[in-house]
Write a structure and sequence with these properties.
8-stranded mixed sheet, alpha/beta, Rossmann fold, 13 helices, 3 domains, 19 strands, Elongation Factor Tu (Ef-tu), domain 3, about 475 residues, 7-stranded antiparallel sheet, elongated
Length: about 475
């Protein structure tokens, strides 16, 4: 219900409109913009200076008149409709259904910005989500309630990887697996990419378990700012009110950050590093910190933000700040991609800071931690030996060094590499890891507890890879 009406605009700049002589307005307040006395658009207040107000218009500012446009101030923040009927549906960034099946039955409305979570109400994330991808499950394990970004680059198959994770991700616990769903949000994607996502999810049949938000590159830029917030509001509802385990995939956060930069420039704010506003860190934190596990709910909210690093620069503000906020990262490699390895996950710079508390006996398998440490250490040594071989020649390497070279080749071709439709269980992944370690002398496996080594090494040693 409108509580204040204002007629006329002072100025229009891109997706922003500027008003003067406005009283009792509130930051983030939802407004209705009446065009030609009939068309209603929505916007929100993003800046207040005295009686001057700046409004972001969700549907764009085309055809707005400086003299005749009417602004209704609602006195409320932007709220989105929520219901379990959202699962299996496709929405745009403004929370409106775009799949042709009509409106959803609304159970409640919730502020799209969410509310701050009291740290004391959080539970430390434990237990894991199985992605079916060995390089992630074994070495950078995704833990329920974690935020684990994927750092990619232009031309790398992060869209394929996102689809594979959506298709394969699951909760292993028998009692919990039916309470698992995925919220997928794409920001600033081209039409062909959006069609790719929809087609792949429909073909696999997973769409019925996905809440999908699509913001296209030709949609209003302000909608790109709303998309991750809408997705996370839906995810919070399902996780913390409906007790579901929700995996949220956000792609591409670089497109989101560039939209923030463009809006900031339109508002005349002083730019910071690379032209991004100085508040980019807190803006990203508002999104990433909505992941977690709460004492008051049996559910969990896990995030995988995907972002492309401009020119592969990991020091760019978007990946740089993301790394500070999140608990690890999965890095995709151009070199592995050029060699035809999919998924091209660079093992050494990738890590999951929470995996140590969500793996092992009771979660995955008791040998998981030791096996992961040994695989990582052995692969790191392979890189050192390759550097040495480039100087002295591979034929002059010792027999142990040659064994490491063979291990590295098999590790990349048989452990990291897997088909787009290949879904490995955690058991298969760990067994494959032991089979690969059997290529090395037992005395080289110094990162594994003796009892674990004696129990698991011999059987894989007899098995052909």
């Amino acid at each position: 219900m409108a509580v204040i009406r204002h007629i006329g605009l002072n100025a229009i700049n891109g997706p922003l409109v500027f008003l003067d002589n406005v009283e009792n307005a509130a930051f983030d307040e939802l407004v209705e913009i009446v065009v030609n006395n009939k068309q209603i658009r929505q916007g929100k207040i993003v800046k207040i200076e005295g009686k001057k107000v700046v409004i972001e218009v969700f549907e764009g500012t085309n055809n707005l008149s400086l003299s005749n446009t009417k602004i209704n101030f609602t006195g409320e923040p932007l709220k989105m409709p929520l219901s379990t009927e959202m699962i299996g549906r496709i929405f745009n960034g403004s929370c409106k259904p775009i799949d042709g099946f009509g409106e959803i039955f609304v159970e409640k409305y919730e502020d799209i910005n969410g509310s701050a979570i009291n740290p004391i109400s959080r539970v430390y994330p434990k237990n894991f989500i199985e992605t079916g991808i060995s390089a992630i499950d074994a070495l950078s394990t995704l833990i329920r309630g974690q935020k684990l970004p994927i750092f990619s680059d232009a031309g790398l198959p992060h869209n394929k990887l996102a689809v594979q994770i959506v298709n394969q991700a699951k909760i292993v616990d028998t009692n919990e697996k039916d309470n698992f769903c995925i919220v997928f949000a794409a920001m600033g994607v081209k039409n062909d990419v959006a069609d790719y996502f929809k087609t792949k999810f429909e073909e696999s049949g997973i769409l019925k378990n996905v809440v999908m938000f699509l913001n296209l590159s030709n949609d209003p830029i302000i909608e790109r700012i709303l998309t991750p917030r809408a997705a996370l509001t839906a995810a919070e509802y399902l996780a913390f009110e409906k007790n579901m385990h929700v995996l949220v995939i956000l792609t591409d956060m670089t497109s989101y950050a560039e939209a923030v930069r463009e809006i900031s420039s339109s508002k005349g704010e002083i730019p910071g590093r690379k032209g991004f506003p100085g508040y980019l860190y807190s803006d990203l934190a508002q999104i990433y910190e909505r992941a977690g596990v709460l004492k008051s709910s049996k559910g969990s909210l896990t995030q995988i933000p995907i972002l492309t690093m401009p020119n592969g620069d990991i020091t760019n503000p978007v990946p740089d700040l993301t790394g500070y906020i999140t608990e690890g990262q999965i890095v995709l490699s151009k070199e592995l991609n050029k060699r035809g390895i999919y998924p091209p996950i660079a093992i050494l710079p990738s890590l999951s800071r929470l995996m140590k508390d969500g793996i092992g006996e009771g979660f995955t398998r008791k040998d998981h931690k030791d096996l992961a440490n040994q695989l990582f250490a052995s692969y790191a040594k392979v890189q050192e030996i390759k550097s040495l071989a480039s100087v002295i020649g591979e034929e002059k390497l010792s027999e142990i060094d040659k064994a490491y070279i063979k291990f590295g080749k098999e590790f990349e071709e048989k452990f990291i590499t897997q088909n787009l439709n290949e879904n490995r269980t955690i058991e298969q992944t760990l067994n494959l890891g032991w089979n690969l370690l059997a290529l090395l002398p037992k005395k080289e496996l110094d990162r594994i507890d003796t009892k674990i080594l004696d129990e698991f090494y011999e059987e894989p040693h007899k098995t052909q890879i």
